[in-house]
Amino acid sequence: MLAWLKNYRRALLPGDISAGIVVAMMMIPQGMAYALVAGLPPVTGIYASILPPIVYAIFGTSMTQSVGPMAIVSLMTAAIVGQMAPAGSGLYSVLAAQLALVSGGVLLLCGLLRLGFLANFFSRPVMSGFTVGSALVIAGGQLKPLLGADLPHWHGPSAALGLGSVLLLVLARSHLAHLLRACGMKAPGAEMATRLAPMFVVVFGLLLVQALGLEAMGVQTTGKVPSGLPQLNLAMSSRHWQQLVQPGLLVGFVIFLISMSAAQSLALKRNEKLASNHELVGLGAANVASMLSGAFPVTGSMSRSAVNFAAGAQTPLASVITAALLAMALVAPTGWLALLPMPVLAATIIVAVLGMLELDTLRTAWRYDRGDALAWFASGAGVVVLGVEAGVLVGVALSMGTLIWRASRPHIAVLGRIPGSEHFRNIERYSADTRPELLALRIDANLFFGNSEAVQQRIEDELRGHPQARNLVLVMSAVSSIDTSALFALSELNQSLCRRGIGLHLAEVKGPVMDRLRQSDLLHALNGEVFLSIDIADKKLQ
Amino acid sequence: MLAWLKNYRRALLPGDISAGIVVAMMMIPQGMAYALVAGLPPVTGIYASILPPIVYAIFGTSMTQSVGPMAIVSLMTAAIVGQMAPAGSGLYSVLAAQLALVSGGVLLLCGLLRLGFLANFFSRPVMSGFTVGSALVIAGGQLKPLLGADLPHWHGPSAALGLGSVLLLVLARSHLAHLLRACGMKAPGAEMATRLAPMFVVVFGLLLVQALGLEAMGVQTTGKVPSGLPQLNLAMSSRHWQQLVQPGLLVGFVIFLISMSAAQSLALKRNEKLASNHELVGLGAANVASMLSGAFPVTGSMSRSAVNFAAGAQTPLASVITAALLAMALVAPTGWLALLPMPVLAATIIVAVLGMLELDTLRTAWRYDRGDALAWFASGAGVVVLGVEAGVLVGVALSMGTLIWRASRPHIAVLGRIPGSEHFRNIERYSADTRPELLALRIDANLFFGNSEAVQQRIEDELRGHPQARNLVLVMSAVSSIDTSALFALSELNQSLCRRGIGLHLAEVKGPVMDRLRQSDLLHALNGEVFLSIDIADKKLQ
């Protein structure tokens, strides 16, 4: 906690200050836009960007994570709260903050129970598919503000402004850095300008709306943004606690997943160490702070953290500076914030989530493992078809399903002796000699409940194929653990072989596995021996 | 399908006939009792024991499985349907049958989609805890009929009859076989008599009630049992389809789990082969048949199948004979079935589920793996506290949680050279030599999304502990698979080491893993080499 502050050196300050300023400039339109995605007044997006990152700076462990509103979590908030209260109502705001409290509580509890390993419940392809599906849903939801009306109708001036902004932003993303460098700007500055393009486009849009009087022509703007810091919010709906438990679990899980994947990829770049249990506490506390600010669930954002990182952030002080600047912006006159044109904000959201349409994972998975590629599609389709909330459960089910499905097809090799040597190899890959009375099987997987049945079946199949075998040797060189379920399966196999007069032997058992087996009855009951190597087993069992 | 019939030999007939008769005698009180557990008229329990086992005999693959009513599935039926309809109402019966249809449909669908591997979603300790928790809940629910009134009150004659029956049944279970053998009966006969004890106790109770006129004193009996075969039932409640989907999934899952664990343990005894996808179809069809019979969800039962097996069943013909005998019992006068005393039936249920209180798994797990023992307790507590329906989800979460938690702590060994040899071993277990410039790590787990983060972190930790290392060799002798998530983690590790000027090498990569890696970019981008053995790597990287 605050270790970074105790070791703070002055040399780190310039980087933190520049990152603090850049992220603050990015945060104003982004925070407001993500508040709109969550179905809330734009100013709550800025509220969510002040206290939560400060609290995260105290409890979190990532040096460059930027905590605040994030597209997918805002989408989930809208999906969940939208079922419980009418959009725009006071209850809606209360429930959004309450959802942050429940999610934060879940995260804190998981952190105290040291459940950080839960971040491993999503496979990478499933997470990628989930992200892409969410991006499509979010972009789809922004078409109406972008065009000023529902499809297929549109409102001319709004659509022109919105689509023009999309075009500008896409061009900025693809060409601005190159252009600026060609004009003599240095690479880091050019890249920073590109990152801030959304802010420039929003300001440009604002000026355009004012200059051309587009508001009078029906282009919507954000509307009055109250001045001043967020008030302490303690409003809660006592009727809704129970209804918020399950959504709070899901939102907490997603907050953790998204934040960890962002923090990990950044930590790797600087060889920093993350402590997942501390991260849970940091994110939990940040969400409680968001509730107290009257905002909505927040998390670490990949795209914003990458900007923070690229702009030179060295410690969480950068986030504290961002928060201070945003607080100052709220204390200053906020009249101009009321004039931000909605189609332009929608354009920034759409272009931002287009950046989440990452197909590299799919491409790699398609070449490397077709099953993972299918899981990617199923996960994305789950979000699009069933919604983001059910999509999380679909994702967990797919990750676990892939895992169990793979486990149910363990690799087991029949071994034979390489002629004239002490070495035994897979007879399918090497020309190796076997004896009909001895069947040597190498089990290439840790034994656990997910595969013990399949291993048992495979052994029976091999025994059927080797009817003369009097001895079965299981070569355990690749087995690093055997759980209780697999221990029972081995005992049953032993009893069954015993009845049939076939010896069951183990060879090349690893130290930790052997230590564990000594605490069971298996070795005692074993209808055979434990050999140091398959070579010795083969010689002794002549 | 029906392969057993095509190869039927006359020699198998005596076993099948004797098993058919024994199970039929067992089925009458048991079927009626489990119908009561499900909250349904007793006769439906017999209906559930006629058509479903015949249909299973056609589609299933187990030779000795006995499909019909089963305590846990009946308990789930009561828990689910009890929330939707008042007990004893017509709607209740309709929904119970409809639940069988939905569960059957789920099972059929899973079978056609070849999802038989789903049986591996429960670890053995979790399944055992779930079973024990369910047994306690079922026994608790039978206290009222056993004592004739709610605790702490009781109805004297009922309680005397009920507790007396419990005592008799417990004594029969523990001593009858021994006693009969002492009287000169042969072992198999004595065991069979013990298995049939519940039926003798029920008949004895019936006679006692009649002889002493206990019915007039308030002892409840089953009441009129309609004569004749079940009518074709097509009644459904169109309003409840949606509400039945999720429960149907859970019930289908539990049906499959229970039936598979029974069938597997029997198949192992005779070295028979089960096809889990065919089992899904067999159980699904049996449940559709149960719906058409106007009954409720059915499954294979461990205890009944063990009787079937012990009584000599060779093929599913035994179950067909049982079904035929039960059908004959329904066509014959059924007046006497109305007189079965409820306290005695409750006693048979209680003693039957006491047999499910199997603590051997817990005992083994406690010694062998404390985490598995905790999962046992949590699973049992989940059923008792949250109910059997939520208990299934708790069980899945616990199994998966244990799996991911274990995966998050992979075993990784630092290797050193055994002086003067070509062998490298874990330096914590052997006195082996290392060089500061070379760090050799053996990864003792398949790499997948559940552990790739932890492996990455562990490697970084080791590198921090070996600051002079210029080359890192990952010894992959125990790695049999690398999924897409882990492939990305390895690529990121490679990039990170590349930036730091540390070489990343692989050694002893298995054939199938290498084949797979060749389809990725990793080998191409690798900041190092792939060596046949760590010995070669060590010599080349001097």
Shape assignment of chain A: elongated
* Quaternary form: homodimer
Largest sheet of chain A: 6 strands, mixed
Spans of chain A of at least 5 consecutive residues whose pLDDT stays below 50 are none
Number of domains of chain A: 2
Keywords (chains A, B): Membrane, Transmembrane, Transmembrane helix
Pfam families (chains A, B): STAS, Sulfate_transp
InterPro entries (chains A, B): SLC26A/SulP_dom, SLC26A/SulP_fam, STAS_dom, STAS_dom_sf
GO biological process, one term (chains A, B): transmembrane transport
Describe the structure.
Chains A, B: One of its GO terms (cellular component) is membrane. Chains A, B: One of its GO terms (biological process) is transmembrane transport. Chains A, B: It holds the Pfam family STAS. Chains A, B: This is Sulfate permease. 2 copies of one chain form a homodimer. Chain A is mainly α and 542 residues long. The first copy, chain A, folds into 2 domains: 17-139 and 153-403, no CATH class; 412-540, Transcription Regulator spoIIAA. The first copy, chain A, is built from 24 helices and 8 strands. Chain A has helices at 3-6, 13-37, 42-47, 51-59, 71-81, 90-112, 124-141, 143-147, 156-182, 187-195, 197-212, 241-269, 276-292, 302-310, 317-331, 342-354, 360-368, 370-386, 388-407, 449-465, 484-499, 511-517, 522-525, 534-540, and strands spanning 67-68, 299-300, 412-417, 424-426, 438-443, 471-475, 503-507, 530-531. Chain A has a 6-stranded mixed β-sheet with strand order 4-3-5-6-7-8. Chain A has a two-stranded antiparallel ribbon with strand order 1-2. In chain A, helix 7 packs antiparallel against helix 16, helix 12 (241-269) packs across helix 13 and helix 18 (370-386) runs antiparallel to helix 19 (388-407). Chain A is elongated, with a radius of gyration of 29 Å. The first copy, chain A, starts with a helix and ends with a helix.
